[in-house]
Design goal:
Length: about 250
Amino acid sequence: MEHRVENYILDELKKYGTLCFPLIDSENSTNAVLIGNKAQSLGASAILIGGSSATDQIELAEMVFTIKSKINIPVILFPGNVTGVVPKADAILFSSLLNSENPYFITGAQALGALSVKKYNIESLPTGYLVVGEHTTAWFVGQARSIPFDKRGIAVMYALAAQYLGMRFLYLEAGSGAANSIPPDMIAAVRKQFTGVLIVGGGVRTPEKAKEIAEAGADIIVVGTMIEKDDDWENKLSSIIRSIRR
Ligand code: 1GP
């Protein structure tokens, strides 16, 4: 399969330096189409749909189907389990939670979901997924032996392992709604070694924080909770996108 979405992301990176992917949590979002439309007009490069607690596959499928007919930027699945694989999406972060204690989240769910990805003809973006810090849904559900915030060397080891395993994307995840986002020194250390597309998410709520993360070397910043919870999310998202662009 041609790498249509992957090449689009690489082109966007060349143009803008750092990109923002708003995350729509299919369990919590009441107005996905509105969010998708606004985010597109504010300069988001793609929309992620999913999350670690997304279990209602029918609801997710309807959401992807509807949003696809209303926006032009790619709709990318961000699954936490096999229930996160539905038709019509442009691509999927086909992720292995590398620091899970449970092999199900490293290769088990992936094997169970792979045939659906093939059947629905969804482009796979091979992604190493690393959970940093504790007490978030991603940490709990994914049974992660999480990387401590102050152990950047461990993040670097996993990042290199992901690269040597052929993963072209790496997602440093602090967890949705995390009190602390991934520390800039950890991002910078990983950036030095990992040559693929570096995604950072969890706890990013302000343009200042987003800028810091972009300057540390993130390619893509994922923003979820702020969009769902903040009444002023449109202005904030717009500032975030402006602050991370070159
Ligand atoms: C969660 O990294 C994403 O998987 C986004 O996190 O909801 O904290 O923005 P927030």
